[in-house]
């Protein structure tokens, strides 16, 4: 039989989580500060020469194709036929500008959908992949 004593029941050992979490956050902050300071030490301090900034002279190449209500086609505000549009696109294709030239097709709200589809189909057949349709916001 066991006798009662002044000590009461013996306590089991347990792990305190809150101080351990505090230590882990402290170590995380220390490692972050050390890594930031190491990044700055890898660079070499230089006195760079001064120059005036130059404007970008090369604009992105954009072709605006507009279709009016009466089915007339305009390329950059110049009226053309469907064959003229094909000739213009073939000239750009011969220069290898299919991937660089962006074509924006604008159609009048009351124009025929078929004309818009014909223009887009022509552009796709000739390999122009940057094709957009211009719309208005509501």
Give your account of this protein's structure.
- The chain is α/β, with parallel strands linked by helices.
- Strand 2 and strand 3 form a beta hairpin.
- It has a domain at 62-134: Nucleotidyltransferase, domain 5, CATH 3.30.420.
- It has helices at 17-42, 82-94, 113-125; strands at 62-67, 73-75, 78-80, 102-107, 131-134.
- Helices cover 38% and strands 16% of the residues.
- The longest helix is centred in the N-terminal third of the chain and has 26 residues, at 17-42.
Helix residue percentage: 25-40%
Oligomer: single chain
Overall average pLDDT: 78
What's the helix-strand series?
Answer: HEEEHEHE
The CATH architecture of the domain at 62-134 can be named as 2-Layer Sandwich
The largest sheet, given as strand count, sense and whether it forms a barrel, is:
5 strands, mixed
Amino-to-carboxy terminus distance? 90 Å
CATH domain class of the domain at 62-134? Alpha Beta
Stretches where pLDDT is under 50 for at least 5 consecutive residues are none
Instruction: Based on Cα principal axes, name the global outline.
Output: elongated
Task: Tell me the β content.
Answer: 15-25%
CATH topology of the domain at 62-134: Nucleotidyltransferase, domain 5
Number of strands: 5
Structural class: alpha/beta
Number of separate helices = 3
Strand order, largest beta sheet: 3-2-1-4-5
Radius of gyration: 36 Å
Topology (SSEs and partners):
Blueprint: H1 17-42, E1 62-67, E2 73-75, E3 78-80, H2 82-94, E4 102-107, H3 113-125, E5 131-134
Parallel strand pairs: 1-4, 4-5
Antiparallel strand pairs: 1-2, 2-3
């Amino acid at each position: 039989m066991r006798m009662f004593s002044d000590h009461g029941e013996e306590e089991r050992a347990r792990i305190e989580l809150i101080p351990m979490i505090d230590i882990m956050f402290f170590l995380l902050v220390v490692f972050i500060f050390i890594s930031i300071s190491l990044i700055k030490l890898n660079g070499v301090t230089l006195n760079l020469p001064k120059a005036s900034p130059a404007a970008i002279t090369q604009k992105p190449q954009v072709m605006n194709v507009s279709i009016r209500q009466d089915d007339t086609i305009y390329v950059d505000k110049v009226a053309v036929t469907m064959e003229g549009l094909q000739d213009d696109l073939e000239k750009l294709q011969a220069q290898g500008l299919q991937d660089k030239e962006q074509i924006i097709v604008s159609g009048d709200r009351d124009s025929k959908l078929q004309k818009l589809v014909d223009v887009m189909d022509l552009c796709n057949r000739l390999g122009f992949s940057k094709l957009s349709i211009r719309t208005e916001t509501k």
